[in-house]
Every structure is written in structure tokens, then in C-alpha cells.
Amino acid sequence: MPVRDESRTSEQHHEVVVVGAGLAGIAAAVKLERAGITDFVVLEKADRVGGTWRDNTYPGCGVDIPSPVYSFSFNPNPQWKHNFALQPELLEYIEDTVKKFDVTRRLRLNTELIEAQWSDADRRWHLDTSQGQITSQFTIFAGGPISAPSIPDVDGIDTFEGEIFHSARWNHDYDLAGKRVAVIGTGASAVQFIPEIAPKVEQLFVFQRTPSWVVPRLDIDFPAPVRSLFARIPLAQRGFREALDIVLRSLTMTMRRDTTARLLNPIGLWHLKAQVPDLELRQALTPDFSLGCKRLLLSNTYLPTLAKPHVELVPHALTAVGTNSVRGADGVEHEVDAIIFGTGFDVSHPPIAGRIRDRNGNLLADRWKASPEAYLATTTPDVPNAFIMLGPNILVYNSFLGLAESQLDYVIDAITQARADGIEVFDLEEEPFRTFNDDVQRDLEPTVFNNGGCSSYYLDANGKNFAAWPWSTGSLRRKLSHFDAENYTARRYEKAESAS
Q1: 57 is in which domain, residue-wise?
Q2: pTM (predicted TM-score)
Q3: Does residue 350 share a domain with residue 335?
Q4: Residue 36 DSSP code
Q5: CB atoms within 10 A of CB 174
Q6: Domain end (from 341, 360, 378)
Q7: Among 291, 309, 341, where does a domain finish?
Q8: Is 313:306 a contact under the CB 8 Å cutoff?
Q9: Cβ atoms 268, 239 nearer than 8 A
Q10: Long-range CB contacts (within 8 A, 24+) of 255-258
Q11: Helix, strand, coil percentages for the chain (3-state, nearest 5)
Q12: From the CA atom positions of the chain, what is the Rg in Å?
């Protein structure tokens, strides 16, 4: 937990405070400004913007959604070099957006939220930060769901004498050349960095608990003439973006039913057969569930890397670590110099939830301990005037940035309505909250996420799907296009109440 700087204790007040300067936080700043909501600040714990694209710097790190879609709607980038941008280009784009839209003057860098507490007494959020106290009428929590690396609790891990780190906190000072390396996990990050480090290491052991579907990464370069066309004719790039969005929306619709998602299995099988000639290795890499049940992995280089002579797939979970070795569930021990965890993030317990207290003083993390729930992935009862970016049950096969922008349309409409109608506090009512979440869980049942035959990170410890959206992308955008004040208890300003 961060320590507050006692030399900075003066309290500030703003109409809106945005917590986090990743993609969602930056989008919030631009959209608030454009809506005429100008009394706000953006708090960022680090000394630089970028969120996950600042923190994840592992070799090969890049986006797995086409770049023209994975862009701010208000700042299309005609200069993408590839259909799937890599991390340095993404971070540069984010920082350029901050400069272009003068978000810098709103930023409070090196300012970490310690705790946010709603007060019914003064109808304000009280935010305790590392740089002092701030109060706000509305708070937008844009901490992001993929910010806390997940490292499994493995027997003996504290005794390991070699190098050990998580892919999200890559140690660039450690030279992998000539080393024996164990990679734990075969998720989205691992399939990107494994092909990058394999040529450098002496031996590579890849621990795979369960295989996942890998499909071709349809990456293309955007040569200078294409980039020039996009710059000169923005309509051309917009059309390309919309075409890609239609493809992604169609994929989401396919995943709504396991019976239709299973029809895509031959694509994964074809890709696997084409890239892995060895039958035994191919069998170890073949999933026994429907394509889409787990997150799709996009790569043209991962599967061939596993077939290299100095790379060994260990089709078992890691069960123990020694002083210079790792052991899988098969009992075989492998001597290694370094362990790299590609084990993703604890998305079912987002860190921001451990810093938000509701009107009753309860931590949101405690309320979400069993299963995270929200209304339209954005609000929750007893947490008034607060909006959570990329909250529970918002996942579709599309750009997270686009989803966050849709949420912000909802948020800004709420603040605009509050201003127009003299409303000081909006608090979500329990009935629509419960009805919505019951409907979500009911309609998730036939989807590939719940019914595809796998156990994925979409399911929490109770087996409940806290992550996926069961309906179309279009329906999500429509529901978030306007703030439904009728589902909230509204409290007017006290002066307005006494006047009436």
C-alpha cells in the first residue's frame, strides 16, 4: 500500500476525478473536455501515462486486436505501421494523443490512490492519495483489469537461486543468452515472447497446463502509400476500421452459442497441422474444447518455435521449484537458470476494488470476493456517483478501448443529466442491478465461454462467469449510449430541495 506524502495535505475539490492514465483514463479526459466538463483531474500512480502499454515491455509485446480498431475514435492514426501494432508504437501513439489533446495539464503523475471513500454527509468522494486529499462529486475509476500480475503460489519458489520474473515486469537487465529458461504459462503474453527469446537461450522449457487454440495472426504491413492514403482521405481509414469492426462483431455473435463456435475448430486444427508436423507434439497442443472457450491466441511463430530442437513442451502444470530446478506434475525435474511467469493477471480481483469503499464503509473488493458484479459493467449499488471502467461482464471480441469509450458515453450522459436536472447524487437501485446480473448469467449459459468444455479465466473461483458479455457488441453499445436515470435513486442539491 502506498504511503501518503504528509507534506502535501491541502485538500482539493473537483467535479470529476479520473483515477488512472491508461487508455480509458485518457479517453475520459478528452471526452469530458469535449462535453464541457472541465473541472477534473486525472490521477496516475506512475511517472508516465500508458497503463498496460507502459508496464508490459516484454519482447514481442503487441496488441491482438487490429490497430485501426484499437485506437481512440477521436484520434484515428493513419500512421500505423502494422495491422497489429507492437508495444513501442502503441505507447508512442498514447503519448502523442496526450500531447495533441492537451491532457498533460490535467495529469497528476506520481499520485497514487490510497483509498476512496464515499460520504453521505457531504455527498462527496473523499480520495486519499499519495499526494494529499482530494474530494470530488463524481469519480471515474479507470485502473484497468489487467494491472496486477498473477504469480502462482508454487512449493519452493522462495528457494530458487536463479532469476525469476513475470512477463508484465520484464527484467531487461538480465541477459537470457545461453541460459536454460523455464516459461510457465502459455497464454496471450507467452505466445508473443516465447518466439522472441527462443533464439537466444540454450534450452527452453515451456510449461503448459492445458493447450489453447492458436489461430493465424493476420498481420499485414501498411506501406507508405497506404499510410499516405489514410492521412489524405480519412474516410478510407474509417471505412477500413468499420470493416474490421464488423468482422470482430461477427466473431462475437458466433461465440454466443457453443454450437456455432465449435464450427471454427477446423481453423485451429488446420493451423496446428500446418505448423507442427510432429504428431506427438501436435496431440499435446490440441485442445479438447471449442475454439473461443478460452481467449483466442494469435500467432504465426509460436507453434513452430515449440518444434525447435532446444525447445521442450512440458504438457503439465508446474508443481515445485528447487534451488536451480523446476518440476512439473509428471514428476520430471529440469535444471534451469531462470523462470519467467507468463501467467497473466488476477482479473477477477482488480486492485482498484481494494481501494474503493461504499457508502457503508465496505470495500468493493470484499463485496466482490465471491464474484464481481456490476450494472452494465459500470456502476453498482451503494457506490454513488462512481463509474468503473471495464468492469465485470463487458468482455466481447473487440477493442477494450472501444468498450471503454462506450462506457464513457454513459458516464458523460449521467453527469450532463445531473447538471441539467439539479441532481447531486445518482445511486443505482438494487432491483435493476439484480435483474441485469441474473439476465447476464442466464444468457451466458449457452455461450462458448460457459459451455465450451474448458475452464478459463472468464470463470471465477465459484465457476461463475464474471467477465463475458452474453449478447452482441451492438447491444452493449446501445445500452451504454444513454444514461438510464430511471434505474437510479436521484438526490437533488439541498438548496433545490429547500426551495421546493
Answers
A1: 12-148+346-499
A2: 0.94
A3: no
A4: T
A5: 14
A6: 341
A7: 341
A8: yes
A9: no
A10: 255/292, 255/397, 255/447, 255/448, 255/449, 256/446, 256/447, 256/448, 256/470, 256/471, 256/472, 257/446, 257/447, 257/448, 258/290, 258/293, 258/446, 258/447, 258/448, 258/451, 258/452, 258/453
A11: 35, 20, 45
A12: 24
Cell 468503473 belongs to which residue?
388
Tell me phi and psi for residue 81, to 5 degrees. Answer: -85, -25
Q: Residue 185: give its domain's CATH number.
A: 3.50.50.60
- 213: helix, strand or coil: coil
Residue count of the chain, please give it: 500
Digitized pLDDT (tens) for each residue of the chain, 500 residues in all: 454 444 444 579 999 999 999 999 999 999 999 999 999 999 999 999 999 999 999 999 999 999 999 999 999 999 999 999 999 999 999 999 999 999 999 999 999 999 999 999 999 999 999 999 999 999 999 998 877 888 889 999 999 999 999 999 999 999 999 999 999 999 999 999 999 999 999 999 999 999 999 999 999 999 999 999 999 999 999 999 999 999 999 988 888 888 999 999 999 999 999 999 999 999 999 999 999 999 999 999 999 999 999 999 999 999 999 999 999 999 999 999 999 999 988 888 889 999 999 999 999 999 999 899 999 999 999 999 999 999 999 988 899 999 999 999 999 999 999 999 999 999 999 999 999 999 999 999 999 999 999 988 899 888 899 999 999 999 999 999 999 999 999 999 976 443 33
Residue 174 sits in the same domain as residue 56: no
Number of domains in the chain: 2
> Are the beta carbons of 179 and 201 closer than 8 angstroms?
yes
Do 187 and 93 share a domain, yes or no?
no
Strands 386-388 and 113-119, sheet pairing: unpaired
Residue 330 lies in a domain: yes
Nearest to 125, CA basis, from 498, 411, 134 = 134
Residues 439, 491 within the same domain: yes
**Closest to 356 in 3D by CA, of 348, 345, 346, 365:** 365
| Closest to 130 measured CA to CA, from 143, 106, 111, 109 | 111
Same domain for 473 and 398: yes
CA separation, residue 59 to residues 52, 176, 374 (Å): 14, 12, 35
Examine residue 269 and state whether it is found in any structural domain, yes or no: yes
Q: Side chain identity at 347, as an amino acid letter? A: V
**3-state DSSP call for residue 9?**
coil
Residue 313 β-bridge partners: 206
CB-count burial class (<10 Å; 0-12, 13-18, 19+) for 266 = exposed
